[in-house]
Amino acid sequence: MSLTSKLPQGARQVARPVPLRETVYQAILELIITGELKPGQHLVEKELAELLGVSRQPVREALQWLKKDEWVDLRPGYGAFVHSPTPEEADQLLSVRTLLEGESARLAALNSTKEGVAELKQIYKRGIQALKADDTEEVFAANAELHARITEMSGNKILVEIAAQVDRRVRWYHTPVAKSRGKKSWDEHSALIDAISKSEADRAAQLMREHTEHTRETYLRQNAEG
């Protein structure tokens, strides 16, 4: 009798450790998304390996993976560079975000609860405090959490999954925009939370569409100005 036949039904296998190249991939990706590594910046394998405390091989493998996912450009004879998104790429992605988050806000308003609204207000409070303290990192974190929580409140699991995929790349575009929008963005958040708390679905959807459109327009304008 084999060993596997003796195991109780539903027995869990030992989880395999995450490959090092995947850990390195996530680490480099986070540096790109947060703007620590700028669009167009040359990525030197040796420097990244030293920064992350690994050998060059997993860095090389991670860069190939990042190229496939269009976060990095590999130029023969020159090396790896952080991808510089084109205006068309940004426009397409942020337009999709507007569609997804507009629907998220509509559903969140229809499914709103006192507990959910209280949580949104608490995140909003954190964002305002961070804004006043000029804590850029916390402003970004609160903004991302607020949008994610509204999507979760939609109750649509497929929408949550798709929005999460889009959000990671949106964070990349949003970082340079957040500072310039500042208080205006959080005023829009306040109005949005009010609509959700009153179950005003159409108003919530419209406010979210306008909010995300402002981000898209600001990004494209800043990009055009160089």
Q: Overview of this structure, please?
A:
The chain is mostly helical and 226 residues long. It has two domains: 20-82, Winged helix-like DNA-binding domain superfamily/Winged helix DNA-binding domain (Arc Repressor Mutant, subunit A, Orthogonal Bundle), CATH 1.10.10; 87-225, GntR ligand-binding domain-like (Four Helix Bundle (Hemerythrin (Met), subunit A), Up-down Bundle), CATH 1.20.120. Helix content is 73%, strand content 4%. The protein contains nine helices and three strands, in the order ααβααββααααα. The protein has helices at residues 3-6, 20-33, 45-52, 56-68, 87-110, 114-132, 136-153, 157-197, 201-225; strands at 42-43, 72-75, 79-82. The protein has a three-stranded antiparallel beta sheet. Helix 6 (114-132) packs antiparallel against helix 7. The mean pLDDT is 88.
Largest sheet, strands/sense/barrel:
3 strands, antiparallel
- Secondary structure: helix percent: over 70%
CATH architecture field of the largest domain: Up-down Bundle
- Structure class: mainly alpha
The separation of the N and C termini measures: 70 Å
Q: What coarse outline follows from CA principal-axis ratios?
A: elongated
Superfamily at the CATH H level of the largest domain? GntR ligand-binding domain-like
- Number of β-strand runs: 3
Number of helices: 9
Properties at a glance:
Four Helix Bundle (Hemerythrin (Met), subunit A), 4% strand, 2 domains, 73% helix, mainly alpha, Arc Repressor Mutant, subunit A, 3 strands, three-stranded antiparallel beta sheet, single chain, 226 residues
